[in-house]
Amino acid sequence: MKRANGLFPLEATVEGENGLLESLCPEGDLVYLLSGRCGIYHCLLDIVRYDKKRVAYLPLYTCETVVAPFVKAGFALKFYPLDRNMRPVFSEDALDSVSLVSVCGYYGFSAFDRDFVRKCKARSLTVMEDMTHSVLSADGLDENCDYAAGSLRKWMGVACGGFALKRRGRFARAPMPPHREHLKLRYDAIERDDMELFWKGEMMLRRIFDDFGSDDESVYLMKHADFRTIRRKRRENYRTLLENVRESENLKVVFPVLDAGTVPSHFTVFAGEREKVRDALQALGVKTSVYWPQGPLIELDGQEDTRYIYDHVLSLPCDQRFSAEDMKFIAAALNSYR
């Protein structure tokens, strides 16, 4: 089993540009940012020029770094829960009191109700999509979105992977220059494969984030990454895990069907005794991740399905660094825990 610390090395490139992000906004604007949260904030700075109500409808299962840009931009927050299949449970009644609706996929899979998004658009609400988990999937951007933002750092080796899209028209302002001290921490962490240094940079960014732009090397890597190969390898690895992981009372695959257009970011399960499973896998050299701990603005009283996700979700790697044999090793490790 290949050991991977969680940090991608800087991505290998191909000669031609891949056109990935440009293809999503042919009539709009694309900018590259230091991080996904910087991308969200850049979109919100554009939106608040005309949105005086400033009430956002966000998923209850989310990362605190996704919520933070809305708070910084002056939005009040309402949240919609999810069921145990990670499908949003929207309320049309909530639309009377909000001005912006944010949607997202999870781990490559977009399960939200597209008809609901159309209704939001018909009511002249601003629709924004966080594409961090869905950017390589065929349905990764809903056609009714006005804005989109995300990061490619879960998909490839890049120091500053943020991006922001405006589907029609241009952004009113350019991003700020990249934050040089934070930028150096990111490159040093990648060069040394140092998670401690990585988290030092992440904690700094939580304090100082703004609409910081990306750097030239990161933009080049994003434009010239071989996404065709990345897509193929991730899908092959996910399929190998599906074929070899045995579900049990204590282990359920969150997304047991891989359709033709989905590119997974991780292989994600619900583990009944999550920390014991993590410890057992760690002892075998298998790194796992928990996205995400419950953030300070997330209130789960009466939301048992969303609470279940936070308490049991566990993600394993299936990215392009790994082989089919690595996936079989991970599957065997999971199967050994009952």
TrEMBL record:
<keyword id="KW-0032">Aminotransferase</keyword>
<dbReference type="GO" id="GO:0008483">
    <property type="term" value="F:transaminase activity"/>
</dbReference>
<dbReference type="InterPro" id="IPR015421">
    <property type="entry name" value="PyrdxlP-dep_Trfase_major"/>
</dbReference>
<dbReference type="InterPro" id="IPR015422">
    <property type="entry name" value="PyrdxlP-dep_Trfase_small"/>
</dbReference>
<protein>
    <submittedName>
        <fullName>DegT/DnrJ/EryC1/StrS aminotransferase</fullName>
    </submittedName>
</protein>
<dbReference type="InterPro" id="IPR015424">
    <property type="entry name" value="PyrdxlP-dep_Trfase"/>
</dbReference>
<keyword id="KW-0808">Transferase</keyword>
